[in-house]
Structure formats: C-alpha cells, structure tokens
C-alpha cells in the first residue's frame, strides 16, 4: 500500500488526545497509523477515522519489537514523515510509596519507548533525506510541582529535555522536533482523576485564565500546525496548550 501522501504515526492513537491528533491529521489528508496495545480500541478508532487510517497493535514497553514495527510500516507504505509520541501512562501515588519498579515502569513507557521509536523513525528519515517531523507530548507536570505524580513528572521533564537535544542535533538535517505540553484537557482519563477529587478540579479550573478545560481537538490542532509547513521554521519548542494555566495565579 505505497502512498504518496504524507504518512504519520501516532502512538496511543486509539483514544483521548492521541485520537484527536490522528483525527486532525486524517481530516487534512495525512495517512495516519495509530499504534497502541488495545486491538479492539484501535479497530474502533480506525472505523471512526475511515480509510485514511490504519492501526498496529504493539506494546511499546517491549523495546525489541519497535525496530520491526517501524521497518514494517516503511516496507508497506514507503516512508514515514511525521511521528507523534503520545502514548504514556500515569500513576497517582504518594512519593514514599512509589517503588523502584513503579518508577522504572513509568520511565520505560514515557521516556525509553519514546527514544527508541524516535531513533528508528529518524534513522529512516536521515537515510532517505526526508524532511521529517517528530512531536513529543509532554505535560504541565513538567512545568511545576504536582503532588503524587513523581514518576510521571520526571518522565515528562525528560521528554522536554530530549526534545531540545534532538532538535539541536537533527534540525540541521531538516528534521524538526517539537513538543506540546497540554494543560487540563477533558478526556476520559482526566475525568476519572478530577471528578473523584472536586477540590483538585476546582483548583485546576480556578488557576486557568480561560476558565474551562481544554478539548482533545485543541491538542490535535496544535499538532497539525507543528507538523505542517506553516511551522517550517519552528523547532525545539515546548508549546503549552493549557488555556493559560501555566501562567495563571
């Protein structure tokens, strides 16, 4: 199924923010491959997104599988233009209760898998002279301290540092690396966290100057912009999409 359209990969594209990013790409005629662990969720997402979308089931924590996933996509479609590293996991736990295994598990998914997937895609882009785009998804947790999410916070701070380092090294070759830091976005995941903690939800909205939760489509629009030629002179940025939360008081 070789395609001349731009081709994007969105990890964690079966739901939430990842789905919204995939939807924005598909609607802009970018053929999009969504990657995740839940085959049923991926199939449902592809049904909603239509023929411009395909899926691959893969546990990204199994790092040895990533090279074959990337090479398989290249063999089938011919090229990879855009990678969005969206897949990630969180854990709400008091600092002193987080085990080494807990901590490493978060880093494996949120940092090491992002590095491995990016490396394999960039190898291909460099070998083919593709002016590619990598977009990492961070979090407001990297900007300031949020209690009980120490491993997640560490992982997202690492993602932002990695974004800058990758941009410096790869941009001279025409590969742009940027990062989006979502604020409080209305997803099923955030609903479970905030609805169970009304005080936290009130605080989140209260310090957001725009006064409401963002929508997944807001992140999709930002990703589409950063992936497009309109952003051709933008690299190495951490773009907050948070209704002003990071600067709110």
UniProtKB/TrEMBL annotation:
Q: Which UniProt keywords apply?
A: Oxidoreductase
Under the heading InterPro entries, the entry gives: NAD(P)-bd_dom_sf (IPR036291), Sc_DH/Rdtase_CS (IPR020904), SDR_fam (IPR002347)
On the tree of life, the source organism's domain of life is Bacteria
Pfam families noted in UniProt: adh_short_C2
The family this protein is said to belong to = Belongs to the short-chain dehydrogenases/reductases (SDR) family.
> What protein name does the entry list?
SDR family oxidoreductase
